[in-house]
Specification:
The chain is an alpha/beta fold and 478 residues long. The chain contains 17 helices and 14 strands. The strands form 5 sheets. The chain has a 5-stranded mixed β-sheet, sandwiched between helices. Helix 2 runs antiparallel to helix 11, helix 6 packs parallel to helix 7 and helix 8 packs across helix 12. The termini are far apart. The structure holds ligand F0G. Ligand F0G binds next to helix 4.
């Protein structure tokens, strides 16, 4: 029997599969307080102190509640420069859950990208992905390369109810790899070959496409294409367990397979991964590179030492590695994942019932508001998703984040705004942190803003940093 699908009876667990053992007090602010605070930070929620936020959905990264076992691990972790016991625990967990023998710890995901991309990317290279997250894009560009998004067209349709909208377009991948300058063994170099492609990356789940999963069939086929063209394939594995759970729920033939096995199969198709432990590692800090190829490992450790630290600690304390090792084992627990994916889906359902336009189906770690349908009258030059983000804070003390034109930045060649196909506000749900009542407050906040959407005004930059402008930009109300 296949597992029940999202929304079907028996799918959503009756309640959280954990009890609350430690709590952190949060405080409500008043609307006048919030008016003053948001103006002080230039209408950019990144500038707010977290104490001024009631429900913080800025990110699901580094915001997880750790388990009792992870907290206990902090005490067990050993602090050592070389040969830390906790490093070996991490290595065992990575081998057990992902199947990779070689691990280089780093302080977070983008540090893993920095080390691996410094090792592999040269100026002029092209790195295809289903859709780059902003740090992988920035690291490729920082190395003088071009970051190419090859996600299927489905990802850009905010309401297409399809199971795997994170899939890479296999036809485009094939055509891109056929343009490699380096001839594949046994073949003549293709006429007009003009690209240098050091590796292909696939992001699971695809954050920039709304946390949409990638199917096993797509990973398998992409892996076959890459192997045929002799190009290594890596995963950006930040949310691999959520992706594996969607495969179990949605992909024929996987309903009765254990998520742990599904995850192992996903990783079996790739040469390695970069990992932000701050998501599916269930920790507040930490990441790593995992690899099979000892030669790449050797080259990467040189940069790891320079940027992060000796390869048996990589910028982390032993206790951080211990907590991440335990987190990796917990995150593939199916009761946890059913709760996790169901919790996010619950917010999506509540919003939909209230008539709030969202990206569908709901992804694994966040619900995305569709700002173009939410605020159809605000021109994109006035940053509607940023304006909506500000309004959610003012209305309910809820902090989401703009995933739209502000984030996309300007084209380096023309200096013009890049208008992405979707203009969204992401409401990312921290793992094991908020209750369903919190989510009800979030849905109510969105509904009230929707009711008065006609009054919302757009924004203009008063300060615009040249790179990653969304973090520190300031705006004024038009
Ligand atoms: N890859 C993906 C898919 C991510 O979502 C992130 C971070 C990273 C890499 C970088 O990892 O933060 O540990 O350096 N995403 C966070 C977010 C910041 O809010 O989505 P990091």
């Amino acid at each position: 029997m296949d597992s029940p699908k999202a929304g079907e009876p028996g799918w959503w667990p009756e309640a959280e599969p954990f009890r609350i053992k430690v709590v952190e007090t949060i405080r409500r602010t008043t609307r006048p307080e919030r008016e003053k605070l948001i103006e002080e930070v230039g209408f950019n929620v990144f500038g707010l102190r977290s104490e001024a936020v009631y429900i913080d959905l800025l990110t699901d990264s580094g915001t997880s509640a750790m388990s009792d076992a992870q907290w206990a691990g902090l005490m067990v972790g050993d602090e050592a420069y070389a040969g830390s016991r906790s490093f070996y625990r991490l290595q065992e967990a990575v081998a057990g859950v992902m199947g990779f023998p070689l691990v280089i710890p780093t302080h977070q995901g983008r540090a893993a990208e920095n080390v691996l991309f410094t090792t592999l990317v040269r100026p002029g290279d092209v790195v295809p992905n289903n859709m780059h997250f902003d740090t992988t894009r920035a690291h490729v560009e920082h190395r003088g390369g071009t970051a190419l998004d090859l996600v299927t067209e489905d990802a850009y349709d905010p309401v297409a109810d399809l199971p795997f909208k994170g899939n890479i377009d296999l036809d485009k991948l094939e055509k891109t790899l056929a343009r490699r300058q380096e001839p594949t063994a046994g073949t003549a170099p293709a006429a007009g070959a003009d690209l240098s492609i050091p590796f292909v990356l696939i992001t699971v789940t695809c954050n920039s496409a709304g946390g949409q999963p990638v199917s096993m069939a797509n990973l398998r086929a992409a892996s076959e294409i890459c192997r045929r063209h002799e190009v290594p394939l890596y995963l950006d594995a930040a949310r691999f367990a959520e992706n594996a759970f969607f495969i179990k729920l949605r992909e024929p033939g996987y309903g009765n397979r254990a998520v742990r096995e599904i995850a192992r199969e996903m990783f079996s198709y790739v040469d390695g991964c970069t990992m932000s432990g701050k998501k599916d590692g269930l920790v507040n800090i930490g990441g790593f590179i995992a690899l099979r190829d000892p030669e790449v490992y050797q080259r990467a450790t040189v940069w790891a030492v320079l940027f992060e630290g000796f390869p048996t600690y990589g910028g982390l304390a032993g206790r951080d590695m211990e907590a991440m090792a335990r987190g990796l084992e917990e995150v593939v627990d199916e009761d946890y994942l059913a709760y996790r994916v169901g919790h996010v889906a619950y917010l999506g359902r509540s919003l939909k019932e209230a008539g709030v336009p969202i990206i569908e189906p709901v992804g694994g770690h966040a619900v995305y508001l569709d700002a173009l349908r939410f605020l159809p009258n605000l021109p994109r030059e006035q940053y509607p998703a940023q304006a909506l983000t500000v309004e959610l804070y003012l209305e309910g003390g809820v902090r989401g984040v703009e995933i739209g034109t502000v984030l996309a930045g300007r084209d380096p060649a023309t200096g013009e705004n890049r208008f992405p196909r979707l203009e969204m506000v992401r409401l990312a749900i921290p793992r094991r942190v908020y209750t369903r009542q919190h989510l009800d407050v979030v849905a109510g906040t969105c509904r009230r803003v929707l009711e008065r959407r006609g009054q919302l005004r757009g924004l203009a930059f008063t300060h615009e940093p040249p790179v990653l402008r969304h973090f520190t930009a300031r705006f004024e109300r038009l």
